[in-house]
Design goal:
Blueprint (H helix, E strand, L loop, with lengths): L1 H29 L15 E2 L8 E2 L2 E2 L1 H9 L2 H10 L5 H21 L5 E2 H25 L2 H27 L9
Length: 179
């Protein structure tokens, strides 16, 4: 019994560590913009009309941006499912919304991006999708500890690959250019 408790403690600490890494990377990508100076930086703007003009690129809706805004917040929903089990669904939804709102506000305050209500909506949907993914994984394993261990292994591998990708990108060692 003590061995199992120790194992759960290690599992929880790993989850918290991975969550902190995710939050740091999320901040670096969305607020610090990977340390790159983009042409639109310095211009402060606010868009309060969902899915409107700022989302249109060459006369078409930029679906890629919508998808990326959802995907980048999926891990937040997965981690919320694991770490905030006692929270009601309403609290989790508010957490997704509030995290996105803070990111958008920081982008505006630091003049590194626009404050866009569309981003808040899509980021919040990403959190919801992540939470639903967590619930599905939990249901498949029929055991929350086993689900958490599976997610930790997957997240650790994904985090390592993401950090390697971002490092190679930053060191200009990939055929992709983001500058």
């Amino acid at each position: 019994m003590e061995q199992q408790s120790k194992s759960n403690h290690v599992t929880n600490r790993l989850t918290i560590g991975l969550f902190i890494i995710y939050l740091i990377v999320l901040f670096w990508i969305l607020v610090l913009k990977l340390g790159v100076q983009f042409s639109y930086m310095g211009n402060r703007s606010v868009n309060l009309i969902p899915f409107s003009e700022p989302l249109i690129l060459n006369g078409k809706i930029d679906v890629g941006e919508i998808i990326l805004n959802v995907v980048v917040f999926v891990p937040l929903g997965i981690y919320a499912g694991i770490l905030f089990k006692r929270w009601t669904l309403g609290k989790k939804l508010f957490f997704f919304f509030l995290t996105s709102l803070i990111v958008e506000a920081l982008q505006f305050i630091l003049a590194v991006g626009a404050f866009d209500v569309t981003d808040i909506i899509t980021n919040t949907l990403g959190g919801i999708a992540g939470f639903m993914i967590f619930k599905a994984i939990e249901r498949v394993f029929n055991n929350s500890v086993k689900a958490q261990k599976f997610i930790n292994i997957t997240a650790a591998l994904g985090t390592a690959l993401m950090i390697l990708f971002l490092f190679l990108l930053k060191m200009d060692m990939l055929p992709i250019r983001y500058q």
